[in-house]
């Protein structure tokens, strides 16, 4: 602000004098929708280095909007990061360690030998000189300032056309998407240039990582001049639109000098007084993540079909009504109903047998009850749909919520959806039992504790991980081997899908609990306790 001193006291007024950051932001006049899910509504977060960052409320992407204007070449690490010789050496050694890890992971998940590797994105000349880089035939593509501007604004890969024509065995996008206003256009062009099955390795700063959540406003300082900050889930969503699925992920090795770290938490002048810190190396957990993606050849896009998995055991009171309601229900896509009957002793099997031969109904009969998880796994193995949904054989959950659960998946805004009982107008549909009120209280408390534990261990933001309504695309199960036979399969499924890069999107659902005297089967010590332990077993295995 400045005051015009030529005016009298009665005529004084103030005018706004924009800072360089505000002036730079005003020069960016091209507002964009979310680059991942195309949502047009975004929440303002903050200004940084002259740009305006927003968050997509749908997929959680943090990105710059509006975009436009010329800036420093983000890929020129020498110019933008201003590294000392020591930190430069540490950066090159980290990249060598990354190539070693990548080689082992690719061999394990897809039996691909790392060779003829093309690196697009941030790089130093030293990245290509290590013994590991020479062994895998690493090629770096230099990027001029003009080419960077075309890439950043339009997703143009013209600068890499010749290198892509040589058909690399794998492509590393080293913090590449985070420089682009339209990463989807870049990915579509990349897919057209590459043979089917070529692995794409994406390194990125994971905004949902534990370091990002703990460091908060200090965290972006560890990453220079990004236009976007991804999470594993919205990155997987972006890649899934072009048919790529996440095959493996691991943390990018990061080591810096103590001086480099200190600069991120203080002023440069204060850091300059402690030059001795440059001699001390510090291994870091910055949330820098690596995802390995691949696609498979398909003749054509499959027609969408919903497979409803219905495990049934001793449900003679409800099962016929549930089956009739599901068969009457109108959906916008095809459906199949897979009933897994576990040798009930109350006449349930005989009721299920009456539905054999009905259009869209498949029945599986187990010789003995081995647990809900075992029945669900049998149903999943038999399913042929592109979307899978697990349904209990009672009316605790509202079948009219199917449309809300399917909508984000059909609109390609999510791969994995949870129907949350803790969202919506009635924001906590607690269990209220006429008999066994204390058990109901324990289960309600456990529901909150389970969600908090899941969010902490798996870097998620779920409110109800115990919900029956779990809906996901078939490809989410790729590379996953489900083990649990009991109710803990619900937790195993949520944990392994999250580790596979598929974070749940939650939608509110209706819920009216039934009591233990009405056939509810879950028990605290037998079922809830092993389910809670499963969070830790699948996180740290």
Structural write-up:
The chain is of the alpha/beta class. Helix content is 34%, strand content 18%. It is built from 18 helices and 21 strands. The chain has helices spanning 20-26, 77-81, 85-110, 131-135, 145-154, 161-165, 183-193, 210-215, 232-240, 258-265, 268-272, 319-328, 348-353, 372-382, 402-410, 437-458, 489-499, 524-540, and strands at residues 2-3, 14-15, 43-48, 51-55, 62-64, 117-121, 139-140, 170-174, 200-205, 228-229, 245-251, 254-257, 281-284, 288-294, 305-312, 334-341, 361-365, 387-390, 416-420, 470-473, 505-508.
Total DSSP helices: 18
Approximately what portion of the residues adopt beta-strand conformation?
Answer: 15-25%
Nearest-integer average pLDDT: 84
Which sheet architecture does the biggest sheet show? 7 strands, mixed
Low-confidence stretches: 1-5, 516-521
The span between the termini is 57 Å
Q: Radius of gyration over alpha carbons? A: 27 Å
Helix percent band: 25-40%
Total strand segments? 21
Strand order of the largest sheet: 17-16-15-18-20-19-21
Pairing-aware structural class of the strands and helices?
alpha/beta
Q: What is the global morphology?
A: elongated
Offer a few descriptive terms.
18 helices, alpha/beta, 541 residues, 7-stranded mixed sheet, 34% helix, 6-stranded mixed sheet, elongated
How do you describe this structure in short?
This protein has about 550 residues and is α/β, with parallel strands linked by helices. It has 18 helices and 21 strands.
């Amino acid at each position: 602000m400045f005051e015009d001193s030529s005016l009298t006291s009665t005529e004084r007024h103030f005018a706004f004098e924009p800072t360089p950051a505000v002036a730079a932001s005003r020069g960016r006049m091209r507002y964009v929708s979310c680059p991942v899910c195309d949502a047009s509504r975004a929440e303002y977060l903050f200004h940084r280095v002259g740009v305006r960052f927003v968050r997509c409320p749908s997929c959680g992407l943090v990105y710059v909007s509006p975009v436009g204007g010329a800036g420093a070449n983000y890929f020129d690490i020498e110019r933008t990061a201003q590294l000392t010789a020591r930190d430069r050496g540490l950066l090159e050694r980290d990249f060598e360690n990354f190539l070693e890890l990548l080689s082992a992971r690719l061999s394990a998940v897809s039996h691909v030998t790392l060779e003829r590797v093309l690196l697009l994105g941030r790089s130093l000349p030293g990245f290509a000189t290590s013994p590991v880089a020479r062994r895998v035939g690493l090629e770096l593509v230099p990027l001029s300032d003009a080419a960077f501007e075309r890439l950043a604004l339009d997703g143009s890969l013209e600068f890499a056309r010749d290198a892509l024509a040589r058909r690399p065995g794998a492509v590393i996008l080293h913090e590449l998407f985070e420089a682009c206003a339209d990463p989807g256009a870049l990915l579509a062009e990349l897919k057209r240039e590459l043979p089917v099955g070529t692995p794409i390795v994406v390194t990125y700063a994971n905004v949902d990582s534990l370091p990002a959540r703990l460091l908060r406003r200090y965290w972006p300082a560890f990453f220079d001049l990004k236009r976007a900050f991804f999470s594993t889930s919205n990155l997987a969503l972006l890649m899934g639109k072009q048919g790529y699925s996440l095959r493996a992920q691991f943390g990018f090795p990061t080591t810096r000098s103590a001086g480099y770290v200190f600069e991120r938490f203080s002023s440069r002048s204060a850091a300059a007084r402690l030059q001795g810190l440059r001699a001390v190396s510090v291994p870091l957990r910055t949330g820098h993540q690596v995802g390995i993606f691949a696609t498979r050849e398909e003749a054509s896009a499959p027609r969408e079909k919903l497979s409803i998995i219905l495990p049934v055991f001793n449900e003679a009171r409800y099962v016929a009504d549930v089956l009739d309601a599901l068969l009457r229900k109108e959906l916008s896509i095809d459906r199949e109903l897979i009933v897994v009957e576990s040798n009930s002793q109350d006449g349930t099997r005989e009721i299920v047998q009456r539905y054999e031969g009905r259009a869209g109904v498949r029945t599986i009969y187990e010789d003995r009850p081995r647990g809900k998880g075992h029945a669900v796994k049998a149903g999943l193995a038999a399913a042929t749909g592109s979307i899978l949904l697990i349904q209990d054989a009672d009316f605790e959950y509202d079948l009219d919520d199917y449309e809300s659960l399917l909508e984000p998946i059909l609109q390609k805004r999510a791969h994995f959806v949870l129907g949350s009982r803790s969202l919506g107008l009635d924001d906590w549909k607690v269990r209220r039992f006429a008999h066994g009120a204390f058990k109901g209280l324990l289960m309600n408390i456990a529901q909150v504790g389970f969600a908090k534990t899941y969010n902490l261990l798996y870097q998620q933001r779920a409110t109800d991980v115990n919900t029956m309504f779990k809906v996901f695309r078939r490809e989410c199960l790729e590379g996953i081997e489900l083990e649990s036979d009991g109710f803990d399969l619900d937790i195993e499924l949520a944990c392994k899908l999250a580790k596979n890069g598929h974070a749940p999107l939650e939608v509110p659902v209706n819920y009216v609990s039934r009591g233990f005297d009405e056939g509810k089967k879950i028990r605290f010590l037998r079922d809830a306790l092993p389910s809670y332990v499963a969070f830790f077993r699948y996180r740290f295995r």
